[in-house]
Amino acid sequence: MKILIIEDEAALLSVIRDALGREGYITEIAADFDQALDKISTYEYDCILLDIMLPGGSGLELLSEIKKNKKKEAVIIISAKDSVEDKVNGLDLGADDYLAKPFHLAELNARVKSAIRRKNQNGDHKVQWRNITLDPDNRTVVVNNADLLLNRKEFDLLYYFVTNPNRLINKTSIAEYVWGDYTDQASSLDFVYSQIKNLRKKLSTAGADADILSVYGVGYKIS
């Protein structure tokens, strides 16, 4: 799962990034309005942590842009501005949550998990795809009531596919989601094929009622 942190305070940004990284998230950062707008317009995320006051513009303008483009990311505003008016404005514009600074990292992590659950999992703690059950909080997978051991990248791949059922996803989007932004600049995306091949084999061996189909020259989808 991938999170974009939009925050101009370098020390806080680093602390948040390290904390979420320890929880297993892929994290990307933006420290000003223009950089954040470029990231939001170009890449996909599960959750965006959004500061209101940014060099070059307002986080609320970015939130409006997210909603105007019908992007599905969960958005949590993190701001030192703790007035009722700011909270109401942010929530009215479509934010999923509002967390006032300073905050405990444990609370931030809980809010992120909750927001992603609501957006990707219909509020459920687990994701079900036929005879496959994923528990994102604990990063575990069960197939036919038996545990399936996946590494971090394989789990993220499977989660991305089952939360986008029957959607044809191109290789670049898969690489960016699992390995981070700017993998579109890599000279080769062969590592995507290699990881998907390993995941397919594990799913087949476990008797999973699903397959990751390859569409030549385009990408993959679960079916």
TrEMBL record:
InterPro entries: CheY-like_superfamily, OmpR/PhoB-type_DNA-bd, Sig_transdc_resp-reg_receiver, WalR-like, WH-like_DNA-bd_sf. Coiled coil: none annotated. The keyword Cytoplasm does not apply. The keyword DNA-binding applies. Keywords: DNA-binding, Phosphoprotein, Transcription, Transcription regulation, Two-component regulatory system. Pfam families: Response_reg, Trans_reg_C. Residues 2-116 form the Response regulatory domain. GO terms for biological process: regulation of DNA-templated transcription. Residues 124-223 form the OmpR/PhoB-type domain. GO terms for cellular component: cytosol; protein-DNA complex. The modification 4-aspartylphosphate is found at D51. GO terms for molecular function: phosphorelay response regulator activity; transcription cis-regulatory region binding. Residues 124-223 bind DNA. PROSITE patterns: OMPR_PHOB, RESPONSE_REGULATORY. This is DNA-binding response regulator, OmpR family, contains REC and winged-helix (WHTH) domain. It comes from Niabella drilacis (strain DSM 25811 / CCM 8410 / CCUG 62505 / LMG 26954 / E90).
